[in-house]
Amino acid sequence: MAEYRKICRELGISHDSDRDARDLIGSLIGEAPQPLGKLESLIRNRDVVIFGAGPSLGKGVKEIDKQNKTLIAADGTASCLLENGLYPDIIVTDLDGDINDLLLANRFGALMVIHAHGDNVPQINSLLLKFKSPVVTTQVEPIKNVHNFFGFTDGDRAFFLAKHFGARKIDLIGFDFGDTVGKYSDPKDPTEHKASEMKLKKLGIAERLIKGALK
Fold first, then answer.
1. Cα–Cα distance, 121 to 116 (Å, whole number)
2. Helix, strand or coil for residue 100?
3. What is the pLDDT of residues 187-200, one digit of tens each?
4. What's the rounded Cα separation, in Å, for the pair 211 and 189?
């Protein structure tokens, strides 16, 4: 939790709001079974490819060798995969991506890992129960039915999910960490554009967490 508290100080995040979001998603999911065994089977001892929403995503998707690999989409990158005839095995999302595409991928079998934080409470309230058998996560202390596999943004949470469940190899596509936001990052602005100051801070955190884990 030390890293999380550091991020809270950097970004002015309310720990109490994140905890409230955790409690909300926990109450909504209730005792519904979460497919943790399936999640682990998709990752353990397997080659995993994780897709981030940087500008290089489109090229990377077209060039990927998907044979015998588990494909993990970070939120809106699921749209890019679908457009290229690929179906993600897992989607890590805080429900910022194109909801219709997320629901479509879920209907085609994508396992959803849905994250709750202080800024997405309305989406959790209105959308969580539309998805089939999600795993739900938090960035504060986990509780019985809400998990914390570490990470902060969708991309680095997908990375730490793969590490947690013992992936044999992890390849990252679209993790550019530059000052340009890819068109799959925000469905409200589906263009490449300069990152805001807050987005740059979040990208910097994601880069720091991933590179720190790779040392």
1. 7
2. helix
3. 888 888 899 999 99
4. 28
